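User: I'm preparing a small set of examples for a lab meeting where we compare how different chains pack in three dimensions. I only have the primary sequence for this one, and I'd like the structure in token form so I can line it up with the others. Please keep the answer compact; I'll paste it straight into my notes.
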Amino acid sequence: MVFTFPDHWISPTQWFGYLAFVLGVASFLQKNDRRFKWLMAGECLAYVAHFLLLGVPTAAASASVSVVRSVLSLYTRSVWVALAVVAVNLALGYGLATQWWNWLPLVASCIGTLALFLLKGIRMRVAMLAGTVLWITNNALAGSIGGTALEVVILLVNSYTIARMFKASRPRPPPAAATAQSPQSPHP
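Assistant: Understood. Below is the structure token output for the 188-residue chain.
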């Protein structure tokens, strides 16, 4: 028996999802917040095309706002700018959502917006995990193969990066303390 991919797995629509996958994984591997945000902007841009081609306007609109949000967060940490981006997301939801799950990417984008503008380091990435769970659900319901795979991998990669950052932030005992605690030889 020969396994063949279904045609929709290799369509241009899914190519944008796969591009978002690569950029998203690269973004969440970053410990540097600035590189993280630039790569996330690229991921979101690929998502815009992907969700437009899938016919999911709320996810495409949310991803569009996320491109702008990611770039803006590189230049300002203003609470007012963050709240303006959240307001745009909520307005998009009122205008475009037709089913309950259409709100998932918009809420995820609101969480991500507040995280990118108001948090940094580990706290920012933990908040992004909450949004990731919402995106996983949205992508599965929308039929986004690359998007669902991306968000599951991002969940794992982001968790790994958080663990690396946490480990790097813990104070290490000085080398002298390690030798002072070693057992003494009974022979001089």
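A couple of notes for your slides: The CA atoms of residues 27 and 35 lie 7 Å apart. The chain has eight helices and no strands.

User: Perfect, thanks.
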